[in-house]
Amino acid sequence: MSHVEDYPGVVQCCPAAHGGPGSTGGPCRGQGMSAQPAIDAFGNDMATLQKDWGTLTPAARTARLQSLVDTQATNNNFPAPRITTPSDLGPGRNGELRFSGWQVAINPGLMNASTLSRQQAEQLGDTLYHETRHAEQWFLMARRDADAGLTAPQIQSQLSVPPRVAQAAVANPIPATDARRGCADAMYNSVYGTNAAARNATLGDLGTKGASLASANQALAQATAARDTLAATPGTTAQALAGANNLVNSTYATATAQYNSFQTTYAAYRALPEEADAWDAGTRAAAAVKSAFGPRGP
Amino acid sequence: MTRRPRRLATLCLASACVACQDAWPAPERFPKETSMTAPAHPVAFEAIAQRLLQSPPTASGLSQALGGPVVAPGDDVTLKLDAAPFTAVNISEFRGDVDLVFDLAPGPWVFRDVVAEPSTWSSGARLPHSGVLESTRTWTAPGRSITCVVRLEGEGPLATRAVTGQARCQVTAS
Description:
heterodimer; A: mainly alpha; three-stranded mixed β-sheet; 10 helices; disordered N terminus; B: about 170 residues; mainly beta; eight-stranded antiparallel β-sheet; two-stranded antiparallel sheet; 3 helices; 10 strands
């Protein structure tokens, strides 16, 4: 997961993107990790971890996060993903479910920081809960495949999940009558079923348009700086200043167009069933962490 | 008492050699010396996977297969690889599975630089949010399987897509 603000240059322009389409959580809300008691318990544990953070080594911090994930996995009946801190998450990305290895990758920068502020704890809690929720979703899809009669090797191949995850799904298929089947169907249709091609296109566009927006914002910043330098330079002619202003205006128009295009794709991304659900759970987890801290002292 | 290896271990894989210095003694995990063996051709993932498939599916077994040390339970080890495009591998165990994370030399690399047979690898759904496509291939042998993962970005034919980040394998005992 990363936030829209993670795209360079976007931070000033679109805080309203949070809570966008699909933020109600869809057919999975209240089930499994999305149940409020599970979220509240997680919030309490994250608040405790925040207090202990400075006394822990990075390895011990990872172990504590693993323990939080293990608790959620045990209580909600899915194989626990491994917490890893790889170096290749990419700039600005806080976390990522890598379902092929059944791993939740967390930005090592977060783990190596010697202190964790309350706000950072909320952010880390959001990320960890969001990505672990994706693991729960993927396991629901594997259980759906198991109900359809797929063997463990077939599930492993189709969903690109490890053998132990496929085997656990075969041992616990999710029948059509199960209360969570609607959620499993929605996830499956989005990721592997009828909407898979549209999902892949949306995710592909998100990266492409994010990069275009970053470039446009950079061009705007450069044009603005050049114009300001000219304006502050004695002897600058009115003609030169007008030319610089024109460049600012044209780059502003380009950046605005890129922003609008990106926002459309971002809204589509947030509306993907698996993302709407994970964003909903993660946002509520962050609120639970904040609540667990209680009111700030004087 | 543990035995300290005296020589650089070298593994020959298909068209090139993987040379690894033992990581002992702790805590100097990364080797101070490097092999001067310069592979004439890049080592493909398939060759490494085949080598690993012949080894005991434990962190120690796989480490030793790559010329590394015994790995204590709960510990991990990083070995230097002189086998372009791979420069190092970290080996760790998690609840019965062994994870290997390979560092790649600065690229750019495309998929066919890293694997010998792109058409035998499969790609499923993009990862959530990042849109990264992880291409995987699984090999099995009696009592174990190994799945390797290469992260790809961009569009177009799989073979020419850019490889991003690290590559990984997971070895599972069955």
